[in-house]
Amino acid sequence: MADDFKYHIDHHVTLAPPAELAEARAVHAPASPDLRAAEDAAIENAVRMQRRVGVQAVGDGQFRRRHALSVVYDNVEGFGPAEDGGAVASLLGPRLAAEVRPLKTVPVRKNRLAEDEARFLSGVTGHPLMLSLPAPGWVLAVDGGDRAAGEALAGIVRDEIAALAGEGIVYIQLHNPVYSFLLSVAGAARARELGLDPASLLDEMLAADSAVLAGLEVPEDFRVCLDITTSAAADFSQGYDTEAVRTFLERQPFGKVCVEFLNAGFPLELLPAGLVISLGIVDVTDPAPESVDELLDLVDKAAEIVPIDDIALSTNGGFTGALTEDQEHAKLQLVEMTARYYWGNEL
């Protein structure tokens, strides 16, 4: 069965911090009670918004994190001080590589990664909960490191996922946006211009990210998906590199993958049987709402290639701050509305 929660509606954990939280973060120290209170209020509001939209699992907006990779930098030893970004940081841009801290030694966990986030969320709502974690391959790509570092990071993430599965979390999105840059024709060309070898980098990331699932023990209804969305940061103007996508799909072991489909045209004909594909069809960077009819047409085209039970619908990534809170809410409602139109009473 394709959709993890009966619904064919998916979404991404990341929401843009509300103005009050951004202001609090600018004036208060990281451990300040005032900042903590602002984070708490923002998370509670985000949960209410997601419940109103009708999503099956709610997240915390990542409002505890300075940026996506900070949850690793703050809780894992082995990283050096922040430095100017290298080739991968240039490829990704400042939003997806907001901080670069080169790996100096094999990483070792000093604290749990998301225990506090899970504890607070479970105290806010009894609804099914989801969190996003940075994939070890993303960390390796940005900060460097060898196979041993990748295996160590994979073990840290694996242990965290296993712990979260016992703390009320039902769905983890393992996020690695670097894949989309390397799988697109334009992104791979830019990577080569920066002195990167897309094939080698893809191989290193797949090894690290696949290792997360090795020996992972979680309840039967717990789900881990690989999220490769970039919130429209990657350049899909020249389409996808078919051979690179084929290699990626043959080697990645996850049962569900989140991709960008709007203006990207992911090559669905390459999908192996049984892989659930979450199609990013609503743009998180454009405040204008998409036409439901146009979105339904996109799903129709996908359903000509992929069994409809192996499709979920989502935005093309987490929200970036380009939209207001009301616009974010409207975009999530569009995803929900389109799925309800398409699957009808099944939802």
TrEMBL record:
Q: Which SUPFAM superfamilies match?
A: UROD/MetE-like
Name the InterPro entries for this protein. Answer: Met_Synth_C/arc, UROD/MetE-like_sf
Residue span, Cobalamin-independent methionine synthase MetE C-terminal/archaeal domain: 38-334
Which biological process, per GO, is one annotated for this protein? Answer: methionine biosynthetic process
Q: Which Pfam family, an example, fits this chain? A: Meth_synt_2
Citing just one GO molecular function, the answer is: 5-methyltetrahydropteroyltriglutamate-homocysteine S-methyltransferase activity
Q: Which PANTHER family match?
A: METHIONINE SYNTHASE (PTHR43844), SYNTHASE, VITAMIN-B12 INDEPENDENT, PUTATIVE (AFU_ORTHOLOGUE AFUA_3G12060)-RELATED (PTHR43844:SF2)
- The protein's name in its UniProt record: Methionine synthase
Source organism of this protein record: Amycolatopsis acidicola
- Source lineage: Bacteria, Bacillati, Actinomycetota, Actinomycetes, Pseudonocardiales
